[in-house]
Amino acid sequence: RFTYGSERDLGGGSLGLLTCSVAAELVLMNKDGMDFEILQEFVDFDDISLNFIDINNMVEIREFKEYRKSVIEILKDREFNISDRLYNAGVYLHKVIQGDNGFNHDVSPDYKEQFDILNALLAMKFNEKDGRAFSSGRYLECLWKVLDVFGAMEAKEIGRCYREGYERYLESYLEEREHIMENYLVNHVFIYGSEMLNVEKIWNFYMKLCIVYGLMKFNLTGLAISNRGMDDEVALKLIQSLTKTITTDPKYLELAVQEIKIKGMTDLSSLRILIA
């Protein structure tokens, strides 16, 4: 018999893909956050069929579970705001890969630069003419409002208007309902974190996490400005539909990572611009 650890969600909602609006509400609206319990179970190899077992991978799997557990714990640390938690997760993963913090100084966010990068990354999704870009009519309903708001801003004022709009219409909501983005990120790491099984792909996974979070916040900001505020119904609609359109499209996320690499923004200090 072989003993292994398995994870089970003990939170208020089930772990799963947030493409379903009901699942998204159950997962995201749990104010207590998600908790996990490691269970010891027994597998009888007489009851299963195995073609190949690579014993050398067992250590890597244990390390992967430790990486994922540590990232989730960092994302659940409510002593910090969500953006700082995501940044701290990057500090941890950089230590895993390189053995250092990965930064030399703090970065003062340039919101015009943040807007330009996230706007370009979002445009890439639709420029690729991928049919899945239009698979969610709910997201298109949100997107038109976002585009109308940002399209009305003057180019020279867009950084200021973008920041002021966030501070006026969205910031207080995200602070009061921080569990929504916390649960989203924790669920994302649990579902898609298998990429961390390969040490060479750990940083790619972190860049995708920053891109997804940045695009989520970017769209929420536009919607909040359009609606002169934010509420749970609108937030859930945007998060669920954007997940269906963006998060489940690995081809797009790889293209987005390549674009970040082309822009020379793969270091932790630069990525912080996306998530600030």
Question: Rounded to an integer, what's the Rg over CA atoms?
Answer: 19 Å
Number of helices: 12
The termini sit apart by 49 Å
- Give the structural class: mainly alpha
DSSP E strands, number: 2
| Percent helix | 55-70%
Secondary-structure element pattern, one letter each? EHEHHHHHHHHHHH
Specify the overall morphology: globular
Query: How would you sum up the major sheet?
Result: 2 strands, antiparallel
Strand order of the largest sheet: 1-2
Whole-number mean pLDDT: 80
Poorly predicted regions = 1-16, 39-59
β-sheet strand percentage: 5-15%
Which keywords apply here?
6% strand, two-stranded antiparallel ribbon
What does this protein look like?
By secondary structure, this protein is mostly helical. Helix content is 62%, strand content 6%. The N terminus is likely disordered.
Strand and helix layout:
Elements lengths: L1 E8 L11 H8 L7 E8 L13 H19 L6 H17 L12 H17 L9 H15 L6 H12 L1 H6 L1 H15 L9 H26 L4 H16 L2 H13 L5 H8 L1
Antiparallel strand pairs: 1-2
Give a brief outline of the structure:
With 276 residues, this protein is mainly α.
